[in-house]
Amino acid sequence: MGQIVSWILFLAPWFLLLPLEWKRVKRFMPVSLFMAVIYTILFQMAEVWNWWDVHETSNVFFLTNISSFVYGFLIVTTIYMFYFTYPNFWLFLIVNWVIDLIQALIISPFIFQKVGLYTMNSMSNFGLFIMIAITVPIIYLYQRWQENVFEEKAEVSLAELLFKRFSQSKNAATRRQR
């Protein structure tokens, strides 16, 4: 049963992106991948500090100690959260924390653990909520930073970029001749 749930959490959520506007989905893909990196690190920490055990029998074959939900459900959920709440920080924070609370205190113990995806060891479900909740402002700040990077690039015209590139290569050639 756990193997089936694991594959569903890995593949099925991606179909939920189909009705969304692709331009906005692409806008929030970097922050979703950043979130997956954060969770990958958290799962590595969990293995070292024995916070929980991911059951290999209930995971997809190429993810040994990381739940498949990180690379499916989590990425898609992060896109949805940004899609519907960004840039309103307080709305983003409150909606995320409510969903995180439900995930940590209801879904984790009564669904994920019951079907055998993982077993909590030295971390409580409330500790899981705190860990998840800490990531929310981090990813919001990351998305704001990403937006600033793209805005700066958008302000520079193509002609200016080409001129800078040409100037840099011309200056480099002049320096090499000396």
Automatic annotation (TrEMBL):
Transmembrane helix found in the keyword field: yes
TM segment ranges: 6-22, 29-49, 61-83, 90-112, 124-142
Keywords associated with the record: Membrane, Transmembrane, Transmembrane helix
Taxonomic superkingdom: Bacteria
Name of protein: Uncharacterized protein
Organism, as annotated: Heyndrickxia sporothermodurans
